[in-house]
């Protein structure tokens, strides 16, 4: 599926489609939808049968917050997780205008998931947010919302049981300062961190530390899309804030291998979910 280092093979990707067992809308826009993959392909689950005790994995896709990438490129990982026995939710979110719609959608979607999973006959015993690349930023941010100011429309008292960031843009400030993705954070937020410090603070999980949620960061050392220094810096800031963070660095691993269950990263992704 991968053509050389950090290059997505578009021809192979075009043959892969995320085929959900169920889909549910959380808003009126076409992108406000969640695809569900049931454990083991749905056998023996749903309708209240076999739905107790399954862990829910919420898989947030990356793509530097831009419309060019949608949830389809997580198809292989999503199906592999379902085959491992997880109930998998793959949200889509609006990406055309960026801030604040992306954050509105992630907040509403995550808050809606308990009702959605119950309607499918599942009551998960734990919830893990997993995000790749820009999705790693969104997963960490969703887990940090209880740290937002009381007046924030995104604030919540709920939080997941854990977060797994796969080559995540864990610090929005650094994503802007390093101009990752050709200035993707600048484009999504509507300006630079210097010009919009308060806006960035509300949307940056690194600015909300400590999260009070177990975090595992998995990052390839050979990643040239989101350098491993990003996860190292987030881990350093988290530890300085008194938080325990697990950082797993994978040698000879690039960016997209972390969402490819045929790569050598797969056992580490499974281990992070089980930790």
UniProtKB/TrEMBL annotation:
One of its GO terms (molecular function) is hydrolase activity. Pfam families: BD-FAE. Residues 55-233 form the BD-FAE-like domain. Keywords: Hydrolase. Transmembrane segments: none annotated. InterPro entries: AB_hydrolase_fold, BD-FAE-like_dom, GDXG_lipolytic_enzyme. The keyword Cell cycle does not apply. This is Alpha/beta hydrolase. It comes from Streptacidiphilus fuscans.
